């Protein structure tokens, strides 16, 4: 009975739920934009293209297509940057996942920022887009939003 009530509430309020990445409205840029902390005077760094086995190449293609379809990344023809090495390591420790999970225990609700692609809802500063460039088998892309796993995010 509880499950039916919950499902009917979800259906009645389906407009407030995000069912996929494309449904995410993101965070208003007037509230926050992520700025990369890059070492002053750092020259652009290009990482070498990595070779992957065919099975991994297909997974990368699928993931890139998914990120591209929802506007999280953009294709680039040329970039002076293909690296994450120019960002200095932050000195403050991040909380462990165990502490975060324990802290959320007992919470009745979590926001979409907490639960669903949280970082990907925050736009990157326009000056920093090129600095997030990454290379795939044949193409270059940069992030338009703060990606999960980017150094110091």
Give a concise summary.
With 153 residues, this protein is α+β, with helices and mostly antiparallel strands. It has four helices and three strands, in the order ααβααββ.
Your description of this structure?
With 153 residues, the protein is α+β, with helices and mostly antiparallel strands. The protein has a domain at 26-91 and 117-152: HIV Type 1 Reverse Transcriptase, Chain A, domain 1, CATH 3.10.10. It contains 4 helices and 3 strands, in the order ααβααββ. A 3-stranded antiparallel beta sheet has the order 1-3-2, with helices on one face. The longest helix has 16 residues, at 54-69. The radius of gyration is 19 Å and the shape is extended. The mean pLDDT is 70. This is Transposon Ty3-G Gag-Pol polyprotein. InterPro entries: DNA/RNA_pol_sf, RNA-dir_DNA_polymerase.
Label this structure with key terms:
153 residues, alpha+beta, HIV Type 1 Reverse Transcriptase, Chain A, domain 1, 3-stranded antiparallel β-sheet, 4 helices, 25% helix, extended, RNA-dir_DNA_polymerase
Blueprint (SSEs and pairs):
Layout: H1 2-12, H2 54-69, E1 73-76, H3 97-104, H4 112-115, E2 134-135, E3 140-143
Antiparallel strand pairs: 1-3, 2-3
CATH class group of the domain at 26-91 and 117-152:
Alpha Beta
At the fourth CATH level, what is the homologous superfamily of the domain at 26-91 and 117-152?
HIV Type 1 Reverse Transcriptase, subunit A, domain 1
Beta content: 5-15%
Morphology? extended
What's the CATH topology name of the domain at 26-91 and 117-152?
HIV Type 1 Reverse Transcriptase, Chain A, domain 1
Percent helix, as a range, is 25-40%
InterPro entries: DNA/RNA_pol_sf, RNA-dir_DNA_polymerase
Organism: Gossypium australe
Protein name: Transposon Ty3-G Gag-Pol polyprotein
